[in-house]
Every structure is written in structure tokens, then in C-alpha cells.
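Same chain as my last thread, 275 residues:
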Amino acid sequence: MIYIIVLFAIILILLYMRLETTFLARTVLNFSTSSKGLRIVHLSDIHINKFYISVSKFSACLRQADPDIVIMSGDYIETVGDIPRFINFLESITEIYPVYLTLGNHDHKALKYVRNYTTDFIKALEATGATVLINSSIKTNKDNKIYNLVGIDDLKQGNPDVEKAFNEIEPSFNSGIINITVSHNPDIIFDLPKDKVDYFFCGHFHGGQIWMPFNLEFRLMRKEKLSKMGYYRGLHKVNGINMYINRGLGNVIFPFRFFSTPEIAIIQLPASTKE
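reply #2:
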């Protein structure tokens, strides 16, 4: 009898873990009490081949957030066969909102052994109207207030060049302009110039996609310094930089989540560093 109970419990847990992949949480970060500053939606780790959130649920959440821009911090595909589906997903966003994105380790892995596919993938992304930031920066504005947005390639599988990315960026305390950085792997924060980064948005850890006691996932399966320090989801301040580690939307390896609900992060920034 005990074996039947245990088996039944395991089946129920697996069913819940599969169901959790269809949930969508809204995480709101208010760095300002005013709505005059830039409003961002941050998406990460979409893993389109294991993306189980309904289109209607996702679209409604995005519309409700009503961002000025959308930023994405990598891991969209697992194979080149995923590209058409992700492009369709991206187009549904770019037709409404400006989108800025960079690549993650799974994107690079998927494209690594296919000649010219990284270049072709970036062209396909930009054809949707999105702006791809690979060790580069761009200015965006809201109500004549300028924001610098910096994108850095993935730390492990890409070719990150922090110096190049920040080549045209002044320290925030000199300009009063808010500097925002997006990259996939949170550990890049240890290489960022803290006087040139006010906010850093990343993903990669999935918040611990399948919860294990005593942080076993991160002790056994992750090598990143931040996860060993206990920083694997949510808002933290590291080296004086406000960092948000997004739990992501999709799933990797297993089509399951456990106590790590997929999320869309909604960030309200101030209008300047002097606010």
C-alpha cells in the first residue's frame, strides 16, 4: 500500500511541475515613485521549444504592463529548427513595442556548428524590427530624458567585450544619464564598470527551475560564482549595481518547474540619476 501512495504522490508532483510551466508571474520593480521615467519589461530564457505559456495569457500580461521598451537577455532557441517559431514570437512583440536583445549560451550553442548561422540569426532578429546589442550600446529616450542601453554577449559561449560595449558610455555621476546593461549570464557583473552601470538585467539560472533543498541545484550543477554566493533569482545589489536575475519564461532540459514560476519583470526607472 505504501508503494502505491508514494507512486501516486510522485505522479501528482510531476503533474504540478508540468502545470507550473504554464503559469506566469508579474514581478514589479519600482525604482521610482513617479511614472515619468522609462518603463521596461524584461524577458529572459524563453527557450521557445519548451515554452508552455498560452499566447493569450502572455499577450494580456504584456499589454497590462504597458512598457516603453522590452529587453530580452538571451536563450531563445535550442536548435536552428526553433528559429521560425521564435521569430513569430518576437514579431508579435516588435509590432507593438521597441525590443532590444542580446544572445545567451543556448543560442550560441545552437548556432555554433552551422556556418554563418549566427550572422543570419541576428539578421532575422533585426528583420522583425528588434535591435540586437552585442557588445554595443544605444540611446533611447522618454519625454526627452535619455537612457543608455548596453548589451554584452554571453559570458561563457559568446565573445563578451565589456570595454567595447562601454566605449561610448560616460559615468552616470558625470552625465546624470541612467545606464542600463543587459546580458545573459549574471557573473558578467564582476567585469562591469560600476561607475557606468546603474541597472543590470540578466537571466540564465531560471531561478532554480526545479527547486531542491539546500540549494543543491546550484551546488551540484552550477559553476557560476553568484549562484554559489546564493544569488540566483530576484533583485540584488552587487558591486554597487542594482541587478535583477529573471526566472525566465521557458524551460531547459526538462519540461518542468517547481517553485520557480515563469515571470515577466516590469521595471519602473527614475527619469535621471539625480531623481
